[in-house]
């Protein structure tokens, strides 16, 4: 045995386990503070720390003092551009949420101010989202009809916004942004696509100038309703709608082809609204079947805190609408903030961003706004228009304030069909065929997750679609964990490397030995599988040799634990049991390169004592060399 | 660039991805058939295959033809021993389930026959389990009182057994034994311990010969009830109980110390029952406050299929009782079958075993039996008594049949206090202090999972305890996945190995480079974390160097993907984004040794095209050498 140890070139570290508090603190930190937000406070004087702390929690104090007029030029332009988008989108999405259109305008006034103070992202533009608007209408509309009792319905929407705000703020403070990560890109792609289809179908009502429609949101009901009320179709409305849509799609196409023409595509929605409004006013559109938005009062947001309604009859639906939309809004807002920050090499603190969204919606629910976040379309426009800081949000809010005070009544002439065209066009951009095709090519399971969200949303209900898709994602996460990959290693010719024999057909297995690489954590959910799998590798290997002429038995099983990130007690027990089983069959077990955490647990559970320190190696090469030596000792005539 | 490639000693395999069907088939196989049960059917002639197939599905055809009389000696002894245990345990556990004691005896007659035919394990002894008995009483007893309507209650217990059987058979046929793996050892230890405490407390009723008691099962209610009816305490009963308990514990102690005396501990329960019965009969125990079991009819199991009750009023509780107990029973039965098979180097096919349990309970529910499985205590006795095959179960069943036909009425004199002592003693063995201490030492989170099951069961309800504990286990599984370990690698002196710098303080980091090892799958649940973590590593590294004299910037980030078992589309997008971010800062990214699955997806998603094949290396050593070369090219004066 001693010769074996001396043969080992590289020493394995058996240092005694770190203290519980050390590991516990580091685990907590990795779980809740992976981005280490307080690293900037180290090594600072107290008053510096305080200033940095305030700047950390209220980012406006960080960027405003360094704000330069040269930046303001860019922010002004970007702010006006997104304001021009906020007016048609605000009115349209409010219609999707079945609340008065003015609420949509209010929602682009107060929340951007709040975000500019607390938000971390430089390019994010605040606004309402179509998907959340529809979800709110679906969930709360099931309980209270927006037509029969519009006041109560509106108050419940404010309450749902309040719930969203509380949920988001709590998630951020508790640093549970991790939960948002469980909405995968595939789920979001499918969900957005499904919602877009739904909303497009709903717009057929506006296109055809219909007065009656279904309350249901699934594709089949909506499609049926379009034809059920065929006698209400107005060709004038349809023609206007198609012209608007062609214009919008054409400018979008131009914008995407020639970046210089980007501004045309950015302002085309407001152009459609203005041209449509003037046109409807001049020809007295209402007499020709062209519906208009109707009354829009002058004046900025009235307070709405007194309307929050926590009646136990409505609270379950309100909580459902609030929490689900808060997650969808976060998934969109955080992802978008992050990806634009990445383009500019900035970093966004997810949990702080979540708090900013939460505060924005809390304040919003007190001031007649409904759910806002950082929608993709608006943020992209803001970025492309050259926004440098959150000042563009302030500019937008000021523009919206001016619009509310002076111009609001003018927009009452906007034809519904123009809004439908704006929504339709925006939604078409959300159906990402290419992304779905990419998913299909790269990962079929991801594609299924995406499709399940798409069809679930389009044909069942939005929450069912979301739940099925998230459920599938989690199932997959658990399957990864329950069925980790193992592979057999062989020696790469002319090197000291050992690699997967399936991946690298040229590598040579070592006679009498089986080198297995285990991946993933080993623990209760997969320890049985891992044991069975290792035993199967051994059976397969032995049956292979039993067919051949040579009579070489497996005498060593070497387990490469490099990829084993952690292990639990059930996992350790399985290894102990496995070793006992194999020793009973005359097969020796050695382990290779357990990492720090795994080694600590193996030492604490006396596994290392049982297996012997001489059977723990630092590299596959060391282990193979030692085992070869012992094979040669047993059979001195066989030169292995 | 070409010189870099030529410098690479070892070629990375970029073979085009395997076909979808190939990977899909292999994934399905790993998920549902990890133990490859059909491997034995390869390369066989059709009639051999048929015979092997029948032997596979009905194992008795495999072992019975080779059965020898020499084995029967052992099986006979073992069978009689476990029968002697089955009588007191059967009666006692039936009392726990609040059903007539005779049902407990029936349950050791039919099910062992069924198991002997379909079961795979050689040492497993069939019997009822205390934990499931109490759970059934708790769940169904909440709906129908076993005292007020004993017939309906009993019929619902049969129905729950039927549901258990169906559930188990379905799990086995669908090869979903994987679900049982999600009950970790820690959960089971805690759950069993908590149940044992509960049951011990309940036995105080029998010990003190009380007539009134609480319906609740939580520790506080039971403890309160014991003192609430203090006036019913009978000292005669308590004295007898303590004597019995001391005897049982003493023989158990003897048996554990001296293996030769094992038989004394195995038969001590039946001795207690017989001695107690004779004693109670002689002194007319009932006049002295010593309650007896009462009526036990002669005759074997009557059919009960006509009693199965699927009334919609009761079905939710019945389904709950049936499914939860089926899982508990499986967790115990499968784990025990496996561990005893391991001791003898046999293998047990989990899913086949589950089908056997399912059939056993289905047939049991038709023949007046309630839930049975392979309880630990009985199986250990069977193994220690020398059982060689499932024949010992047949011997036990025959003994039970004889008892039912001839001796049953004799056991009607058994004092309740003797049964309480038998239960109490069995339960004390289930509280594994040492295991809990082991958990505490090795893994604090496992300890918490165990404690939550223990306290949940003891102080809330059994199902809540189980749910909390399983929930914590799953949370942990997801946390592992959401927060995978990453570490920085450095070069081990005088070798080509690269290891964790934290674990091996002697290893040297390479100036200008950051080598990171990623573990676990990279996918939606952790991709944000991994990006943030890598960026933090780079920040930390750069701030370290900025403090020192030298001005060495990180120019290369090398990601060792050896431990990355798989990747999804979100994960790949994160890598692409990360690379763009880092290239923007002038940092080059290379990846090292992606495994087969990961490489296939990286190729399919064009990641490899984007990063360039020259930036994919087979080993850390290769990558570091190449990057050193490019560093030297940039700064010819710096000898790195």
Automatic annotation (TrEMBL), chains A, B:
The record's keywords, sorted A to Z, are: Membrane, Transmembrane, Transmembrane helix
Q: How does it sit in the membrane?
A: Multi-pass membrane protein
Q: Which NCBIfam families match?
A: sulP
Localization? Membrane
Q: Where is the STAS domain?
A: 503-627
* Main localization of the protein described in the UniProt heading: membrane
TM annotation in the entry: 69-87, 99-118, 124-144, 151-176, 182-201, 237-255, 261-283, 390-410, 416-433, 445-470
State the species of origin: Ziziphus jujuba
Top-rank taxon, per record: Eukaryota
Q: Which InterPro entries match?
A: SLC26A/SulP_dom, SLC26A/SulP_fam, STAS_dom, STAS_dom_sf
Q: What is this protein called?
A: Probable sulfate transporter 3.5
